[in-house]
Design a protein that fits this description.
about 220 residues; alpha/beta; 6-stranded mixed beta sheet; two-stranded antiparallel sheet; 6 helices; about 10% strand
Length: about 220
Amino acid sequence: MGQRKASKDGDRKVGRRALLIGGTVAAAGSAVLARDELARLWWRTPGVEKPRKEGEVDHAGARWVAASEANWRRADRPDDYGIDMVIVHVTQGSFDSAVKAFQDPGHKAATHYIVRQDGQVTQMIRELDVAYHAGNRSYNERSVGIEHEGFVDRPRDLTDEMYAASARLTARICARYDIPVDREHIIGHVEVPGTDHTDPGRHWDWDRYMRLVRRARTAPA
């Protein structure tokens, strides 16, 4: 969230979906796509979305609390938009205030995850979907956003538990989407082009965080 309220991603268009089933079969003549392959790929046809379960989370151990539907856009990532980035935020407030804001349809912004100071991870938007968190449509479509409870000018808010839990979360996201663990692909909100935000701020220890992410990335799942 940073020092100012996140900008709205005004796009409401349905994301494009690759058409994977069709002309190839006809061109092959007698070739027939196996039933199990059809069953696996049916949801990639236009207008058909991946199966979803209410309350399902993408990160093991995360708690689900749904954000307002006004603060994100339904998508089928990474099939319609590739995911190649994690964006780090600081809430500029308490965990409860961040949840309240992300559940408010008037806020027009939310991240996929919030990490509390005690290390508890809450997911509010599925990684499939585009969260309005970066203030930049292209970056929203290609990234997963993670908020951290606290204030950018209070280094004591950035606890050991928060760093460790966030690093594990980022490492798992990077593993899922084959994202390189480097500072080109794991960035702060302040680094998004066109943003007017300052988070995660000068007290965020990037060297420490990246060491923890690399360590978690190579650890057994």
